[in-house]
């Protein structure tokens, strides 16, 4: 891990929702490239809000947020679109399209980038074999278990080989064994060089899969040791 390279930089970062709610305030943090960071904190602490800002779904109200050298606050829509092609996202509750096959779900980020089916197929097969679900290529998500669906969400997040993966409570609805399997996959990706930022409240998983821990409490950082 090259600690001199920062993939996410925050300085006095603040986010106020249009309702007036200040969800995050005064965040200062640098996340080094190649690290595995757990974002912990109770419900309402601001974890999802922070992840949403990092992929440009929300613009900071004030302060600085720089992701892969892109300043988020003043970024154009085109710059945000370009940034999103370099970020893999595993949303809370996986958000697979149930009317589409596993192939179509996993291929989606590359379809957006204009890949044709001929190039897509080998790439989709490769990431599905990474998550151990190559045989489910033509299945529909509803025929898969919760853990399998989450592995499909991981395959989709990694398909464009992004340097950064954001995961919002990816083990939220899973039993312990299945949750560990999901974490094994994220850990393997991290070992291959991907930076992983994962929101969770499954603190017991941290003992089997250690990482840097960043804690939010009511929108502020409690401890931010990430390197
Ligand atoms: N779209 C929104 N509009 C207004 N307030 C919101 C919105 N989304 C979240 N919040 C509030 O911001 C705070 C942080 O929420 P969130 O980031 O979802 O926390 P966490 O993911 O840690 O549970 C909470 O008080 C929540 O109610
Ligand atoms: Mg959340």
Q: What is the makeup of the main sheet?
A: 6 strands, mixed
Classify the secondary structure makeup into a structural class.
alpha/beta
Record field, number of beta strands:
10
In terms of DSSP E residues, the strand content is: 25-35%
What's the pLDDT, averaged over the residues?
93
**Helical percentage:** 25-40%
Strands side by side in the biggest sheet: 6-7-8-3-9-10
Write the layout of secondary structure elements.
Layout: E1 6-16, E2 22-32, E3 36-40, H1 47-54, E4 62-67, E5 70-71, H2 77-84, E6 87-90, H3 102-112, H4 117-130, H5 146-158, E7 164-168, H6 176-191, E8 195-199, H7 205-208, E9 212-217, E10 220-223
Parallel strand pairs: 3-8, 3-9, 6-7, 7-8
Antiparallel strand pairs: 1-2, 1-4, 4-5, 9-10
Helix pairs in contact: 3-4, 3-5, 4-5, 5-6
Bound molecules: adenosine-5'-diphosphate and magnesium ion.
Adenosine-5'-diphosphate is lined by residues 17, 19, 21, 23, 41, 43-49.
